Amino acid sequence: MTKSALFRVLSVLLTVLVTLGLGLTLAFGVPGVERAPRTEGIAGTDGNELAAYSILDLSACSALAYANYTPEEFLIPNGEISGAPVELGKHRAEATRGTYVFVVLNLDPDSPTFTQDAASLQNFLYGDRSWHFTLHLPAVWSACNVYVDNVLTARVGEISGYDFSQYGDVSGKTESHDPGTQSLFLDLSFYSGRTVISAYPDRLGAAQVITIHYETESAFAGMDRTPVIGTDSAIRRIVSRDSSLLAAFGAIAAVSVCLCIFFCLIKHTAEFIPEAFVSLGIFGIMIFNFAISGQAFLPSICRGLSYAAFSFVTVAALLPLNFRVKKFPVSALFILLGLLGCVTGLITPFLPVELAAALNILRYTAVAIDAAAVLVLAFLCAASPEWRLRKLLTPTVAAVTALCGMFISNPVLVVQSAVFWLLAGVLLTDLFVNLGTFIEIERRNEYLTHNLEAEATRQTEDMRAVIDERDTILRFISHDLKKPVLSMQRFLSTLREREQDGEQVKAIDIVRRKNDDLKLTLDQLSKYARNNYVAERSMVFDVRNAISSVYENLSPDCEANGIRLIRTDEFPVHVFAKRACLINVLNNLVMNAIEHAECSEIVLSAVRKKGRCLLTVEDNGKGIRADDDPFAAYVTEGADGENLGLGLYICRSLIHSMSGTLDYDHREGRLVFTISLPIS
User: Fold this and answer.
1) How far apart are CA 416 and CA 29, in angstroms?
2) Residues 79-120 pLDDT 10s
């Protein structure tokens, strides 16, 4: 392994260790919300011990980690105070309906330290001379009725066939289940006077009892997070902070997705697509958990989408790691497994409890395998010089985060969640990678642009040198070779006058005609070399000016040959072309018609059609034979083999130099040459 490859592998390993270390530090090194201790020796109405709390043990913010759970029954609020103590966060309600009971005890009036204990609760004392605590209940799946003592305090969703008159002084009955989740704030009030508290027969009488009846039609039931209790300002502040963090990072994830799409569009590249999908997955996790933490009318869908988004992050992390073994994309198999995990997470909330539990195991397995595959592929790619180290950062951090999310339990608050902050780290890594990739592409494009400009300058200089050399050669051919041709012409004329033999005269005439053709070609080359139309700069002008110039120059020639020259250019048409070059081409086309077409009429016209300017030169002469190509060099025309030279060949080349075309066709017995040029 080369030093460069070793450095890249060690960099990936360092990324794994740093991310894992950060996750473990956040999970075990950062103190969470203080858990209120259970009060021992409190028995319920059934005689069994309850999970109960004393207000003396509560701080400004405390977690009620234990509740009393009774499956399949709705207990009478404040009448049946019982249930098996369960630890929230680890407990999973498997019954589709049941009851949670929280018991918060007032001070013991018989305690010798009552006065001192009452003084320690001064922060909770309000103007009504009662101690007030705010209890925040997280979402209860997926419909619930909440009672404080025997008073119906909140209803979220509808429990099917629920008769309110059986549990309190509220009348009415529901028909069917209607899901909905909402976090609730409950005000718990406790008398502070020792005499008033002593009037109750026991401590349960002076306690605040929170009874929660729930029902679900999905795989999720009951409470999966821990309530918090404390001062109203503290509780509302931390809950609002949690919601704000979820919304803020959801917004950042959305911005990251938009940036990736924007970069892809302006740079015409797909390099940012994997990072866009990672950000999209994090956006789903943040937004759907935000919905669940607040108020959700379709809670099961939100929970399913949240699970699917978490699995999708590992799928997105696999996308850039297109590692191949003998042209086989290894990552494709793991991507399919990850997509199966996404589908599983999406449908789990709508399945029976037993089947949902089995599919959850499948989803966890898919995430774990995909995360491990990402790490293995990241190391393999790092060892290969064709992979950029920066593109391996996001997949590596995302894979470690996915593994941490499976094995680190959820804390009471989002702000203390290791997985949340690791996901935020993935998002920030994603943004860093995207900006780095964008800057790299910008620099590469700048480098290419600079080199292209230098290359264009060099090629322009080379082209000018070639044109100058061509012009030199053309001048030599058209000028120096023209002298012997003219000399041959004079000698042939003298020889023709002296020769008496008819066969010899015929042979001399053939040679003279060929010599004349050669002189014509040299004349055309001389004119082409002298004007150098290819080097002429393009400009915007009205084609009617060019037609006027041709009309004025060649009208006398047409009249001398008994030909009518007509122009039909009525409307202005502006083109971006070479004016002198275009005039030369039109002159050549008209002169060819005068000399070879045997016509009586030539028409010049210009029209605008489909974003192009069409200039036509048409005559009513003999036309061109079907098997002839008038644009080929030295094409012959007519039965006598008259040579047309280079005229039309050069004309087409000149029109091509203006991004135009030159073609011909026969229309109703007329020969039409058409020049097509771009309109300015």
Assistant:
1) 10
2) 999 999 999 878 888 788 999 999 999 999 999 999 999 999
- Residue extents of the structural domains in the chain: 3-30+237-431, 34-230, 536-680
Greatest CA separation for the chain: 158
276 touches 260 (CB < 8 A) = yes
Residues above pLDDT 90, as percent of the chain: 46
Q: Which of 38, 214, 205 is nearest to 137 (CA)?
A: 214
Q: CATH number of the domain at 536-680, please?
A: 3.30.565.10
Q: What is the chain's Cα-based Rg?
A: 46
Same fold, 34-230 and 536-680: no
HEC letters along 541-588: EEHHHHHHHHHHHHHHHHHHCCCEEEECCCCCCEEEECHHHHHHHHHH
Q: Output phi, psi for 352, to 5 deg.
A: -60, 155
Listed in sequence order, the residues at least 6 apart from 397 whose beta carbon sits closer than 8 Å to its beta carbon are 15, 19, 422, 425, 426, 429
Assess contact for 30 and 22: CB atoms under 8 A.
Answer: no
The structure's pTM equals 0.67
Query: What is the per-residue pLDDT across 359-408, written as a single tens digit (0 to 9) for each?
Result: 888 888 999 999 999 999 899 888 887 778 888 999 999 999 999 888 88
Give every CB contact of residue 206 below 8 A, 6+ residues apart in sequence. 105, 106, 109, 190, 191, 197, 200
Strand partners, 53: 104
Q: 34-230 belongs to which homologous superfamily?
A: Galactose-binding domain-like (2.60.120.260)
Torsions phi, psi of 489, nearest 5? -65, -40
